[in-house]
């Protein structure tokens, strides 16, 4: 019996001598960072799936049926999809969640009630505000339940442990709460003043609204969102045509075009914008042609039928032959060497580009000669002011020339670089650089994607002739049909903002800077 008892003990000692570490020590436990990363992946993926599957609510907003959803996003914001007109994007907050509002349909019963009782339109804004509030509250509750259910279900499937699954659900709820707190902390109710619209170009002005009325009537985000829904309701109420844009009669509307580069489609686009926005004056900052030859002159003939006066300066692709041809047109005002003209209640002065680059026999002089042209334009602006006819807007093709007018005029327009820019220079002059209204012409096919067609509508106060707002219009390039309209306001014109000081050397209330 003793021998039988000792034999197994000897075997145990022999095994331990050969295997000094227990089996559990031979299997390395997962690294804590790896476990945490895996858990976060389950939380994020589960929360996203929960929002995707059950995280939306259907809510009536006025006469419309909408669907509200929270979506993961790197930039946040609010997107309002108004099918079939397009979508509005608002930079309402910065957080890893985005609010999507899809307008599903216009309820025929509620719409007919508005038609039968138009007096209800007056109270529609308050009704919409309440509907949006109720819908947002329901969405918050539904989203909390969705992320918890999604993360818990995925955690249970991955870990097969109820405690770990519940931890994933709790973390998902905490993540959503933190995202909501970030959205609340960065909430920007003024984002409704600068929406980006994509879709049918003709409906954009009506949906975005009038620049002056938005500035004067802005109250809070929900009220403006209600006004937006009301405007869209009116759009749906028409059948064959969209309602015409009704601009403020005291606002001067300027269409800025540039770098058409012999693209015949540009004239139809410009004519449509002139009619839709009720444009008072068109300003072309040059490069209308490609080579400036006499055989290209017939391309300019549609300018006479655009329906608005045309202010033009020569670009580096436009020749003196081009300039002389335009000077013979009754509605065209050609500006060169600091010449000035009063058009549509505004005083313009401009200069043509000193370089004509299609002429290969002449060496391009580059930036220095452009700056000299700008210095000459600045001198002409001072002369105009001394003569009692101060200039409201200067025009040059090249931004290098335009920058030399800083402090001499409230606004200067330029082109040349084929991209849209807006900046306030050191001495207070605002520089607006337009993109290519011709989509870079034949150069549009050189890159992987065609260049967009870009233009802008500038709104100026008729009394002060100062810029109040501007719409950046961007159309898909060659073969593309996408359209975007973005509304922008100068900081000094936004509600509650302190008016910015006038440019250096300017006296309050004056129309242009004082001499330097």
UniProtKB/TrEMBL annotation:
Residues in Calcineurin-like phosphoesterase domain copies: 252-419
Stretches with biased composition (Low complexity): 506-516
Keyword Metal-binding found: yes
SUPFAM superfamilies reported in the protein's UniProt record: Metallo-dependent phosphatases
Pfam families: Metallophos
Alphabetical UniProt keywords: Hydrolase, Membrane, Metal-binding, Transmembrane, Transmembrane helix
Keyword Metal-binding: yes
Transmembrane stretches, start-end: 36-59, 139-159, 166-187
PANTHER family: PHOSPHODIESTERASE YAEI, TRANSMEMBRANE PROTEIN WITH METALLOPHOSPHOESTERASE DOMAIN-RELATED
Protein name listed in UniProt: Metallophosphoesterase
Originating organism: Streptomyces durmitorensis
